[in-house]
Amino acid sequence: EYKNNVCHRVKEEDDAKQEYETKEAAMKAAHTNLDNQQTLENKREAEYAANNEVRASELRSLNELKANLDTLVKVGPQDGNLGQLPKSKVIGKKEVPEEVKSTFLQLATALVKKSGRPEYDDMVADLQRKGAYTDSLYEDLRKAQDAIAEEDKKDTAEVQVEIKLTRSLRDKYDQAEAERVTAKRLWEEAEQRTQIARDVLADTEKAKAEADKLRAEELKVIQEAKDLVHSSLLSASLTPPRASSRLLSCSSRTHA
What we know:
- This protein is mainly α.
- Helix content is about 85%, strand content about 0%.
- It has six helices and no strands.
- Helix 1 packs antiparallel against helix 3 and helix 1 (about 1-75) packs antiparallel against helix 5.
- The protein is rod-shaped, with a radius of gyration of 55 Å.
- The two termini are about 85 Å apart.
């Protein structure tokens, strides 16, 4: 019975160990997936930060260009020779000072160098084209700002996708780790039950061995006692009986 119990406990322990190893492998796989995803998320966030810095710089340049354009449209150049400019909004007229056109071109050219947005090329083309109106520049500015906003929205969405996926994989890892810990505890408990069963079996076998030894010693003593009685009886049966002294005395008198 005790041996069967040990065998049963050993099987339980083996099953628990196998279950733990399965859960541990699942946890390691989940951890690897999480690490890879976290790396990808960090990469996306770094890319977003770098792109966002470029976009911020572009927006600052666009705002500066727009501010200069607003000033030109509202008040004209400082020398006051362009009284018709605010009404016509023509930026290619020969009356526009070269330094004014140069400022716009520098800003637009700097934007082209920062980014390959086609809107910036359109700005440069508008500034270089004769008879171009400020309305076209405003339109180019609006399109550039819209493009930046759309790009930021797209990049933000991509980062959010990675964050969401990371969160999902982290939940899976946490679940896998919890299952591993539970399986480990059940395995350890099975090991304890096996050890208890083995200890009980060992104690039982030891007690039985001691009892058997004691019984053997008792049987030996009993057998020795039997042998002694038997030997005594055998000796008594082989020894002739001795005549009594009274009989011998009577016998002597008769012969006299």
